[in-house]
Each structure stands twice: as structure tokens, then as C-alpha cells.
Specification:
The complex is a heterotrimer. By secondary structure, chain A is α/β, with parallel strands linked by helices. Chain A is built from 13 helices and 16 strands. In chain A, helix 1 crosses helix 2, helix 3 runs parallel beside helix 4 and helix 10 crosses helix 13. The longest helix of chain A is centred in the middle third of the chain and has 18 residues. In chain A, 55% of the residues are buried. In chain C, helix 1 crosses helix 2, helix 5 packs across helix 6 and helix 6 crosses helix 7. The chains are: A alpha/beta, B alpha+beta, C alpha/beta. Strand 10 of chain A pairs parallel with strand 2 of chain C. The complex binds thiamine diphosphate, iron/sulfur cluster (3 copies) and magnesium ion (MG).
Chain lengths: 380, 111, 278
């Protein structure tokens, strides 16, 4: 296509479709999934787009456990790979998420949150999977959980999710909600060079020297694709530097500590937020996902009415961006946390509060959204 | 493998790897092997071995090697090792399996 | 036969602790030998071979062989194997699974891998029991057999792995035993060369968790049992009284290209269509 430079391609996309654009821009060439509302458009779009890539692979698997397995396998073979699901499927994926965390296999998992537990409210928005995203897989493990609140962000945060996955050798969970996923907005499509794209480091040393789980400066060992001469062992058992099972306390400790350290050390890099009028704010709203949109309007209206209101939109949910939240809490007399659950991020906000301020929550679990006026009432 | 005549084969059991399951002993058609006091397989009638091919692939622990004597002799010379054929407990030919590394504490974990 | 053992040593990871972690007389080690000889027979480069194993005693095989090895979660070996094969069809991907792994918890993945004919070789080590967790019944435990979770005898019927995999559409299905190891070698090598999903069921005794509780005096007795009961398919079909006999050999051999090949062809076709339109 010979187009005039600088003329950007634009499209009117669903949040779910923007996820696909982001994934492809990030270099994703492998998708495996199982259909579930309200995430299905991601899968259906991938089914059309991936076969058009010279090496693209799309697979509809028999369930979400298999989807995660295929994604893990593809990633081990060197691909940037992803899956998408919603609540019930997300629950099925947990064991494999833990496996990916333990084996330090990069992958992206988009969970479009719907309402309720179990089959719940398949076509309504919810934010009830937030703590599950952090702690759904058993055992202590680090994980990155991101969120997007509008269509352009669906694209950007998918790119970020892939970059983080590759940079830190970890599964990354991107949480959307039914509203964000099913809102159609005009966005400009990514062009090569728009985003900085990160790909995992591969070993350059001779295979005999390679230790797949060695401590490195960044805490993230390089990772070769299967089949390139570095034959090593991948296991979900706690393992030593060579990747072989171990239960020696000192080796187990070293593994777990490094896995946490590789994320902790880069807190500043991974804690993404957007500040809206927070500079002089006395009242702060902390929100994410579709609720952040209502909060944006509420804060604007509050400002117009003369109240010193601000908004912190969380794009990273875990590790909880306490650097940003804590700082603002010290300056505000009131923090309001609106969420489509009974209080999952507000737990984190309260945890880092340490008595600096008052934390109030707005919770809604009836399948409807939190409106701007609901938030406005709390902050003015 | 053409050699199958009696008296021409050397049968070696590696005691470090043998677990004494008795499979080779029970099925050897020529009763070449018997259980020692530790329960592990012992070569008791090497000359009777006809290199039938049973014991080697059936040992679950890769603990038996049967070598036609001619081939074994060659190996010995190629090694520059003038010593007589190694005893069954101390294989020396470079083509024979390495002895296991010194035992380290059990690192395996039962899931 | 010396080369049999020498060969094995070329493919073992010598930094691992030996002897194998398995109990005395466990058939799993014999299957490991067949796997290595199969790979060797085809002259495959170690770098191009991937062994994905499940969780169970059988899954322990992965750590010992000097290939690219993945010790998956319980029952999910085939899902990871599918991802690897689709991501890089050049690789020879072998899934090593126990009976519980492949047909209880992983049964859904197995029938779908067979249906979609992903180009993976499945090696199922069927010992009729959950070995690693200490002897509970699996989906292949024979009716009436004792286990810790069927102390009065198994009431449920067992899966016939061959018939199930055949019905699911696999390109190749065969059954061997660790007693008939030469034949098993052949079955494994054959499965490795053929396109599509090829499954080899290897009957392998577990005296510790199955034999002891079901009237066998020792592991050797279980090998004798296999020797007596297993009959080559052709002979089996001529038997008048088939009761208690187990047919072994190749049951299914269909020419089906693997999913990875069909997928590549589909992508190629798409490109041609696009090229033609331009
Ligand atoms: C999800 C899950 N459930 C249960 C287990 C416990 N578990 C480990 S191995 C195993 C059964 C192994 O039996 P089989 O697959 O037949 O292998 P074998 O040990 O007999 O070779 C079970 C139930 C597990 N690891 N993961
Ligand atoms: S078959 Fe192997 S392990 Fe068993 S007794 Fe013989 S040499 Fe020992
Ligand atoms: S090769 Fe055959 S005859 Fe010789 S020791 Fe082994 S089983 Fe016996
Ligand atoms: S418990 Fe059974 S399957 Fe497991 S190692 Fe022992 S004999 Fe083999
Ligand atoms: Mg079993």
C-alpha cells in the first residue's frame, strides 16, 4: 500500500478488537482460546487476522486449560502468544497461570470481566476478578495485572502487556470489563515504530554454559526458543539454576526470591497510572476500567463546581502502584474508590493508607455501571 | 549382531544401577544370572550366554551390558589399556556406561 | 547387544542422579529405552526433539533424557505439546503420559488431540493405576481390581485406550508391552515417523502400587503375566477364546496430514488468494 506518509489509518473499533490490534503491533503471532462472552470478539478477530501472517497460528482449543497450555507451549517455542477469556474460563486457567509463573514463561492473558461469580451475568460488566488475577493461582508467585479503561487504552495496554511479559519473563494478565470491551470508539491504528516493542532476551553464550534459571543483573534469565540448541528442562516443580527439580531449602529460597525480585526491582517501570488533576487535589478518586470513565466525568464536574477533586487511574493493578497512591493519599483528606465489586482494589488502597486519610468505597454488584453522579455525590 | 554362540560373550551388571528386580534373572534362557546376597543380579554362568538379546533392553535400569568377546577385546586395546578384561563390577572400557556420579542428597520431590 | 545400553547413555543426562527414581522392576525405565531407541532409529538430532511429559511417575522420564524437555502440569502435556508443534512444526514432539495423566484428568485433551490430528506422538505408559500418588484407581484400572480407592474392587469399567483413540480419529494407534520390547521399539519408531496424531499405549507393570494389591508376588510375575496375556493382533483375531487376552500391535494407520501441515497449507492458500487479487 503506497499511502501518503503521516496519514494515519483510523478505525472504529470495539475494545476487544483494539486488543487484537495491540497484540499484532506487539508481535503476537499465536492465539489459542475458547469462546466466552464478553471476550469472544478477541478470538474471532484473531481467527481472521492470524492466518494472514506468514507464521500466524490461531487455535480454538477444547477448553481454557488447553488454551493456556497451547499458549505456554508456543511461548516456549519462541512465540509471543496470548489467550483471552472471561470469569468462568479465567478460573479454569489458574493452574496453568501458576505453571507459567513458575517456569517464567512469557504470555498475555486478557480477562474481560463480566458480572457475578460462577456463570453470573455474562453480558454485564463487573470487576470481581481483580484479587483472583493477583492470587488465583496457588502458591506465592509474582504476577503482573494491568487494566484498560477505554478503546485506545485496550490497544496500548495490550502492547504494554506483551512488553512486560517479554521483559520480565512472566505471565501478564490484562483485565478489561464488558463495557470497555464492547464500547466502540474511533482510534488510530498503530504503525510500525509507534510503540517500543520488547522481545525476550535470548542467550548468546554457548549452550554448555547456559543455565536457564540463573540469576542475572536484572533477575531475568535469557530464554532460548526450543529447538535452537539449548536443550534444557522446564518444570513446574521448584527447580535449581539448571531447571531440574530441587527441594533443597537454599535452592528453593533462591528461586522464589529471584522470581519476586525480578519484578520488585522494577517497580517504577511496571506501576502505570494516569493522573487527572491530582496536583492540588484534596479529594482523590482511585479508579480503573470502565469506572475510570465515569470518574473522569465526575471529577471534571466537581472541579467545575469548585471542589479540588482529582483522579488517579490505575493501569497497573498488581503489583499495586503504592508509590503513586501513597504519595497522593498523604495530600488528600478523602480517597474514594468506586468499583464494580464488593471492594477489591479498595482493600489495597486501605492497606497502604496507614492512617493518612479517609478511604470511602462505592461498590456496585448489580450488573450496572457506577455513574458519574454516584461518584460526584461522594466527592463534592 | 551375529555373535550368538556360547562362551563368546561378556556379561556385565553394574551394581550401582541394578535394583535387583530379578527380571534378567527370571527370563535369561541360559541362567547366566542369579541374585547375589544383596538381591542384585550377579553373573554366574557367563560362558552360557548366547547373547539372545533379552536382558539388555529389558533391564529397567540400564544396568546390564552384554558384549561379544571379540568386540570387547578390541575395545580394550583401543583404550591402550593393557589390563586384563575388567571385572564385572568395574567396567573400564570407554564405550561402556559411566558409573553414576557420586550420590548426592535426594533432590527429587514427589508431587 | 552392548550397543543397546551404550546407546541409551548417549541420550541420558549424566548430570542427573542415577539409578532412575523408579521402583525396582518398574516398566517405565524400559519404555524410556524404547523412546530413546525410537529417536535414534530415525537419526533425529537431539535439538529437534521435544519431550513433554505429564505429572506422575511416567512424567519423570522427561528429566532424564537429553532432549528439549518440558514437565507439564498433570494431564496437560498434550496441550503444551500442541502449542509447541503448531509454533514450530519442524520439531518432533513427543508427549509422555501416564494412564491417569492421559485418560483421566487429560482425557479431554487426548480425544481432541486425536480428533484434530496434531502431529504429536503420544506415549501412554499404562500401568492401570496412579503410581505416583500411591495407588489409587485410574480410568484404565480393570473392573474388579483393587486399589486404595477401590478397596472392594473397582466397580467402574476401564477405558480401552486403543478403541477410544481410534474412535476419536487418531492417525495411528498401537499397543505394546514392556515385555515385548523389540515390538514396542518398532511401534514407537513407526509412530515417530508418521504424520498426524499417533498414540502408542505401552503396558508397563507397577508392582509397588498395582501388582502387590492384585495378587502378584513380585514384578517378575507381572512380566510373566504380560508375556502370557499379550497376543499379536493377527493371532488374537484368530483366537477362539479371547477372554483375558490383550491384543498388541498396530490397530490404526490412517494417512492424515497433521494439523500443523493443514494449517500451513491454509495460510499458503490465503496468501495466493491475496496475491492473485493484487
Ligand atoms: C491437578 C492435579 N491433580 C492431582 C495431582 C496429583 N497427582 C500427581 S501424579 C497423579 C496420578 C499419576 O498417575 P498416572 O498418570 O497414571 O502416572 P503414573 O504415576 O502411574 O506413571 C496424581 C493424581 C496433580 N499433580 N495435579
Ligand atoms: S533387570 Fe536390571 S535391575 Fe533388574 S535385576 Fe537385572 S540387572 Fe538388576
Ligand atoms: S543375553 Fe540372553 S543369554 Fe545372555 S545373559 Fe542376557 S538374557 Fe542371558
Ligand atoms: S510406583 Fe509404580 S509406576 Fe511409580 S515408580 Fe514405582 S513401580 Fe513405577
Ligand atoms: Mg499410571
Amino acid at each position: 500500500m503506497s499511502q501518503v506518509r503521516k496519514k494515519r489509518r483510523e478505525a472504529f473499533l470495539l475494545g476487544n478488537e483494539a486488543v487484537v490490534e495491540g497484540a499484532l503491533a506487539a508481535g503476537c503471532s499465536f492465539y489459542a482460546g475458547y469462546p466466552i462472552t464478553p471476550s469472544t470478539e478477541i478470538m474471532e478477530t484473531m481467527a481472521k487476522r492470524l492466518p494472514q501472517l506468514s507464521d500466524g497460528v490461531f487455535l480454538q482449543m477444547e477448553d481454557e486449560i488447553a488454551s493456556m497450555g497451547a499458549v505456554i507451549g508456543a511461548s516456549l517455542a519462541g512465540r509471543k502468544a496470548m489467550t483471552a477469556t472471561s470469569g468462568p474460563g479465567f478460573s479454569l486457567m489458574q493452574e496453568q497461570i501458576g505453571y507459567a509463573a513458575m517456569t517464567e514463561t512469557p504470555l498475555v492473558l486478557v480477562n474481560v470481566m463480566r458480572g457475578g461469580t460462577s456463570t453470573g451475568l455474562p453480558t454485564s460488566p463487573g470487576q470481581g476478578d481483580v484479587q483472583q488475577a493477583r492470587w488465583g493461582a496457588h502458591g506465592d508467585h509474582p504476577i503482573l495485572v494491568l487494566a484498560a479503561s477505554d478503546v485506545p487504552e485496550c490497544l496500548e495496554m495490550t502492547v504494554t502487556a506483551f512488553n512486560f511479559a517479554e521483559k520480565y519473563r512472566t505471565p501478564v494478565i490484562l483485565l478489561l470489563d464488558e463495557i470497555t470491551a464492547h464500547t466502540r470508539e474511533k482510534i488510530s491504528l498503530p504503525e510500525p515504530g509507534d510503540f517500543e516493542i520488547f522481545s525476550r532476551l535470548v542467550p548468546t553464550m554457548p549452550p554448555e554454559w547456559y543455565k536457564p534459571y540463573e540469576e542475572t543483573l536484572r533477575g531475568v534469565p535469557p530464554m532460548p526458543p526450543i529447538g535452537k540448541g539449548y536443550r534444557f528442562h522446564v518444570t513446574g516443580l521448584t527447580h535449581d539454576l539448571q531447571g531440574f527439580p530441587t527441594s533443597r531449602p537454599e535452592e528453593v529460597k533462591a528461586l522464589v526470591e529471584r522470581q519476586f525480585r525480578k519484578i520488585d526491582r522494577f517497580f517504577h517501570d511496571v506501576q502505570l497510572v494516569e493522573h487527572v488533576a491530582t496536583d492540588d487535589a484534596e479529594v482523590l478518586v482511585v479508579a480503573y476500567g470502565c469506572v475510570a470513565r465515569s470518574a473522569r466525568l465526575a471529577v471534571r464536574q466537581a472541579r467545575e463546581a469548585g471542589a479540588k477533586a482529582g483522579l488517579l487511574i490505575l493501569k497497573t493493578l498488581f503489583p499495586f502502584p503504592r508509590i503513586h497512591v501513597e504519595k497522593l493519599m498523604r495530600a488528600c483528606r478523602l480517597v474514594v474508590v468506586p468499583e464494580l465489586n464488593v471492594g477489591q482494589i479498595s482493600r489495597e488502597v486501605k492497606r497502604v493508607n496507614e492512617g493518612h486519610t479517609t478511604v470511602r468505597t462505592i461498590n456496585r454488584v448489580d450488573g450496572l455501571i457506577i455513574t458519574p453522579s454516584q461518584i460526584l455525590k461522594e466527592i463534592s | 549382531m551375529s555373535a550368538s554362540s556360547k562362551g563368546q560373550n561378556r556379561v556385565v551388571v553394574y551394581p550401582d544401577w541394578c535394583k535387583g528386580c530379578g527380571i534378567c534373572i527370571a527370563f535369561c534362557p541360559k541362567h547366566v544370572l542369579a541374585a547375589g546376597p544383596d538381591g542384585k543380579a550377579r553373573v554366574v554362568a557367563e560362558d552360557a550366554c548366547v547373547n539372545c538379546g533379552f536382558c539388555e533392553p529389558h533391564c529397567p535400569d540400564f544396568a546390564i551390558v552384554v558384549t561379544p568377546r571379540a568386540a570387547n577385546g578390541r575395545n580394550g586395546r583401543a583404550n591402550g589399556n593393557g589390563a586384563p578384561a575388567a571385572g564385572q563390577d568395574a567396567p573400564e572400557s570407554p564405550e561402556q556406561p559411566q558409573q553414576p556420579a557420586p550420590k548426592e542428597p535426594d533432590k527429587e520431590e514427589h508431587p | 547387544m552392548a550397543e543397546v545400553t551404550q546407546l541409551i547413555h548417549q541420550y541420558l543426562r549424566h548430570n542427573k542422579k542415577f539409578p532412575l527414581v523408579f521402583c525396582p522392576g518398574c516398566g517405565h525405565g524400559i519404555v524410556l529405552g524404547s523412546l530413546v531407541r525410537g529417536v535414534h532409529a530415525l537419526g533425529l538430532d537431539k535439538d529437534d526433539v521435544v519431550v513433554v511429559a505429564g505429572i506422575g511417575c511416567s512424567g519423570r522420564i522427561a528429566a532424564y533424557v537429553d532432549f528439549n524437555t518440558v514437565h507439564a502440569t498433570h494431564g496437560r502435556a498434550l496441550t503444551i505439546a500442541t502449542g509447541i508443534k503448531m509454533a514450530n512444526p519442524e520439531l518432533t514432539v513427543i508427549a509422555v503420559m501416564g494412564d491417569g495423566d492421559a485418560f483421566s484428568i487429560g482425557g479431554n485433551h487426548l480425544i481432541h488431540a486425536a480428533r484434530r490430528n496434531i502431529g504429536v506422538t503420544a506415549l501412554v505408559l499404562n500401568n492401570f493405576i496412579y503410581g505416583m500418588t500411591g495407588g489409587q484407581c485410574s480410568s484404565t484400572t480393570p473392573e474388579g481390581a483393587y486399589s486404595h480407592t477401590s478397596p472392594m474392587g473397582q466397580l467402574e469399567a476401564a477405558f480401552d485406550i486403543v478403541e477410544l483413540t481410534r474412535a476419536a480419529g487418531a492417525a495411528g494407534v498401537s499397543r505394546g508391552t514392556v515385555f515385548h520390547v523389540k515390538a514396542l521399539d518398532g511401534l514407537v519408531a513407526d509412530a515417530l515417523t508418521r504424520p498426524g496424531f499417533n498414540l502408542v499405549e505401552a503396558l508397563t507393570p507397577c508392582f509397588t502400587q498395582y501388582g502387590r494389591g492384585n495378587g502378584f508376588k513380585n514384578a517378575v510375575e507381572m512380566f510373566k503375566w504380560l508375556k502370557e496375556r499379550a497376543v499379536p493382533l493377527e493371532a488374537y483375531e484368530k483366537l477362539e477364546d479371547k477372554s483375558g487376552r490383550i491384543p498388541i500391535g498396530t490397530f490404526v494407520r490412517r494417512d492424515v496430514p497433521g494439523l500443523e501441515a493443514r494449517y500451513a497449507a491454509m495460510r499458503e492458500k490465503l496468501r495466493e488468494m491475496k496475491g492473485g487479487a493484487a
